[in-house]
Design goal:
Blueprint: H1 12-31, H2 52-62, H3 64-85, E1 90-101, E2 130-144, H4 148-214, H5 222-256, H6 282-292, H7 294-315, E3 320-332, E4 349-359, H8 364-433, H9 438-473, H10 476-480
Antiparallel strand pairs: 1-2, 2-3, 3-4
Helix pairs in contact: 1-3, 1-4, 1-7, 1-8, 2-4, 3-4, 4-5, 4-7, 4-9, 5-9, 6-8, 7-8, 8-9
C-alpha cells in the first residue's frame, strides 16, 4: 500500500496576498463592483437634464475609479476563498497509457522459474510487444492544522473589509468631486448672467455717451467714453473666462459619471444662493468621524489583518495532521499478473490505502524571521492608524472652520451686494439725468460686480464645504445611500 506524503499546507502566497493587500490600502488611507454598492440602476443613454442627485447616482455606477476599487474587493474575496478552500479535501489524479513494452510473462503464475525466454532481458529479443495503462489518485483531508486555516481565513476576512472600506474612501472622493464640478458649473452660470446684465447696462450707457459727444455736450468727455470702453472690454474678458470655466466643469462632470467627452450632457440648473442652513456642531462631527471615517476603518482592518499574518507565521512552526487516501493501479497487456504479494510486479498491481499522517516543515529559523517581519509590519500599521486618526481630526476641524467662515462672509457679502446694486442703480440714474459722471458709474459697477462675484464664490464655498465636511466625517456615502457593506 502506498500512502500520500504530501499533506496540504497554507502556501506562502496566501500570506503574501494579505500583505500585498495591506500595502495597497496603507498608502491610500494615509493620504487622505459596482456589485457591492446599493444604488438604483440608471440608463446611461437616458435623455433630460441631470440634477445633482442623478449625477451622483451615475457616478456611483459608471465612474472608472470606483469600478477599479471594486476589483480590489473581488481580489480580496478571492484570497479569502483560497484560504477557506484549504479546509477541504485536495484530490490529485493521473492516468497514463504508453508503450511499447517488452514481454514479461511466466508460464505459471507466481512461479518465476517458468519465465519465458522472450521475457529475459539483456538481449534484443523483446518477444510480444504490448502497452501499459497506469492510473493513480490521492486524496488528502486536513484534520488539524493548529489554527493555520482559521487564522488565515480571519486575516483574509479583515483584508476584505479593508478593501471595501477603501471603496468607500474612493466613493467619498468621487462624490466630493461631483459636487465641486456641479457647483462650479452653477457658479460660472451665475457669473455669466451677472456679467451679461452689466454688459447690457454699460453698453446702453456708452451708446448715450457717444450720442452726447456727437452733440458736443459738456456733460461727457472722451475720457469718459474710453473709461467705459475699458470696463466693457474687461467684462468681455471675464465673460469669456466664465464660459471657459462652464465648459471645463461640464467636461469634468462627463469624466466623473463615465461619459465620453464627445457625448452631450445637460445639467439641471439650481440656484447657487440656496445654501444649506447652518453648520453642524464640531464635537458631534468629530465623534462621528472617529467612528465612521472609512480611512480609519480601513487601517483598523489592515492592522487586524497583519496581526493575523503575524499569528499565522507563528502557527506555521507546528505540524499539520491529515487524513490521506491513495489508489494506484497498473495493467500491462503482455505481462503475467503475479498475485504473490512477495513478488515485486511493476507491470500489474493494484494498491488502495487510507491513513493518518503528520507533516512538518523544519525551517524554524526562517519561520521565526518571517514572524518578526510580520509583527513589525503590524506595528507599522498600528502607528499609521494612530497618525491617521489625528489627521482625520485635523481634516474635520479644517473643513468645519472653513465652512463656518464661509457662512460668516456670506452675511457680510449679502449686505455688500445689496449696497453695490443700490449704488449702481443710483449712479445710472444720476448719469441719465446729467448729475453723475463716468468715473462714479464705473466705480459703482466694479463694486457691484466684485460683491456679486464674491457672493457667488462664497455660496460655492458653502456648497462644496458642506460636501467636504460630510466626506471628512464619513457621511458623504450615507447621504446618498451608496455605502459599501463591509460585513
Amino acid at each position: 500500500m502506498r500512502f500520500p506524503t504530501h499533506a496540504p499546507r497554507l502556501t506562502s502566497s496566501i500570506v503574501l496576498g494579505v500583505i500585498s493587500l495591506a500595502t495597497f490600502v496603507l498608502p491610500t488611507t494615509a493620504r487622505s463592483e459596482q456589485t457591492t454598492t446599493e444604488v438604483e440602476d440608471v440608463d446611461p443613454e437616458s435623455e433630460g437634464a441631470l440634477d445633482l442627485d442623478e449625477l451622483v447616482r451615475r457616478a456611483v455606477q459608471f465612474n472608472l475609479l470606483i469600478r477599479a476599487e471594486g476589483t480590489r474587493v473581488r481580489e480580496a474575496e478571492a484570497l479569502y476563498q483560497r484560504a477557506a478552500a484549504m479546509a477541504y479535501p485536495a484530490i490529485s489524479f493521473n492516468a497514463l497509457i504508453g508503450g511499447p513494452t517488452s514481454e514479461a510473462r511466466t508460464t505459471v503464475v507466481n512461479d518465476l522459474s517458468t519465465v519465458t525466454p522472450e521475457s529475459l532481458e539483456a538481449d534484443f529479443d523483446f518477444g510480444e510487444l504490448g502497452v501499459t495503462f497506469r492510473i493513480g489518485a490521492q486524496i488528502v483531508q486536513p484534520l488539524y492544522t493548529f489554527g493555520k486555516i482559521s487564522t488565515a481565513k480571519e486575516s483574509a476576512a479583515h483584508g476584505v473589509r479593508a478593501a471595501k472600506h477603501n471603496v468607500n474612501i474612493t466613493l467619498g472622493e468621487v462624490l466630493l468631486n461631483v459636487h465641486r464640478a456641479y457647483w462650479t458649473h452653477m457658479m460660472t452660470i451665475s457669473f455669466a448672467e451677472g456679467l451679461e446684465d452689466g454688459y447690457r447696462i454699460l453698453e446702453s450707457v456708452i451708446m448715450k455717451i457717444e450720442t452726447l459727444i456727437e452733440e458736443d455736450s459738456a456733460q461727457v468727455t472722451e475720457n469718459d467714453r474710453l473709461r467705459l470702453l475699458h470696463a466693457l472690454a474687461t467684462i468681455r474678458v471675464r465673460l469669456t473666462d466664465a464660459r471657459v470655466g462652464q465648459s471645463l466643469s461640464l467636461q469634468a462632470l462627463k469624466l466623473l459619471i463615465g461619459k465620453e467627452q464627445s457625448d452631450a450632457l445637460s445639467v439641471a440648473a439650481k440656484e447657487i444662493e440656496d445654501v444649506p442652513e447652518g453648520v453642524p456642531s464640531l464635537n458631534e462631527q468629530m465623534a462621528l468621524a472617529r467612528v465612521q471615517r472609512p480611512e480609519v476603518q480601513a487601517l483598523s482592518a489592515v492592522t487586524q489583518a497583519l496581526d493575523g499574518v503575524a499569528e499565522l507565521r507563528i502557527r506555521q512552526l507546528f505540524p499539520d495532521v491529515y487524513l490521506g487516501g491513495v489508489i494506484d493501479m497498473a495493467i500491462t497487456s503482455n505481462a503475467t499478473n503475479q498475485t504473490n504479494p512477495f513478488i515485486y510486479d511493476r507491470f500489474n498491481y493494484f494498491d488502495l490505502g487510507i491513513g493518518i499522517g503528520v507533516r512538518a516543515e523544519l525551517d524554524v529559523f526562517q519561520k521565526l524571521a518571517h514572524a518578526d517581519m510580520a509583527e513589525a509590519e503590524a506595528r507599522t500599521a498600528m502607528a499609521r492608524l494612530d497618525a491617521v486618526r489625528q489627521l482625520v481630526e485635523l481634516d474635520v476641524q479644517k473643513a468645519h472652520q472653513e465652512l463656518s467662515g464661509s457662512y460668516t462672509r456670506l452675511r457680510d457679502l449679502e449686505k455688500a451686494m445689496t449696497a453695490g446694486r443700490g449704488w449702481l442703480t443710483s449712479s445710472v440714474l444720476a448719469y441719465d439725468i446729467g448729475t453723475g459722471n463716468a468715473r462714479e458709474l464705473v466705480d459703482s459697477f466694479i463694486a457691484r460686480a466684485t460683491s456679486e462675484a464674491e457672493y457667488f464664490k462664497t455660496c460655492f464655498d458653502i456648497h462644496v464645504g458642506s460636501a467636504d465636511l460630510a466626506r471628512a466625517v464619513g457621511e458623504m456615502q450615507q447621504r446618498y445611500g451608496v455605502t459599501v457593506r463591509t460585513e
